[in-house]
Design a protein that fits this description.
Strand content: under 5%
Structural class: mainly alpha
Number of strands: 0
Mean pLDDT: 84
Order of helices and strands: HHH
Number of domains: 2
Helix content: over 70%
Largest sheet: none
Radius of gyration: 24 Å
Oligomer: single chain
Low-confidence stretches: none
Number of helices: 3
Length: 91
């Protein structure tokens, strides 16, 4: 998957690292922010992380691959039709 979406993979890893860091800071009380502020940051990171994982999962699913094949078939058929029309116009 990282071959297809390197930016999303990098962003996901970055968010995971931030999430682990904030959770550790919250647990140990190492951050100057209040626990409530850290909890809000953690929730925002989790939300963004879940969105990225949803996109990566969707595009790696076989369902998406089926739609890619269907689109390729439709484009091929349309190309054949356009070629036939062009040939007909030339004759």
């Amino acid at each position: 998957m990282s071959r297809n979406f390197p930016y999303l993979e990098l962003k996901r890893q970055e968010l995971r690292n931030m999430l682990v860091q904030y959770q550790r800071e919250l647990r140990l009380g190492l951050n100057k922010e209040t626990g409530e502020e850290l909890s809000v940051h953690i929730q925002m990171i989790q939300d963004e992380l879940s969105e990225i994982e949803y996109v990566l999962d969707y595009f790696s699913s076989s369902h998406w691959r089926e739609w890619q094949l269907i689109a390729l078939a439709v484009i091929s058929i349309l190309s054949l039709i356009m070629g036939a029309i062009s040939l007909w116009v030339l004759l």
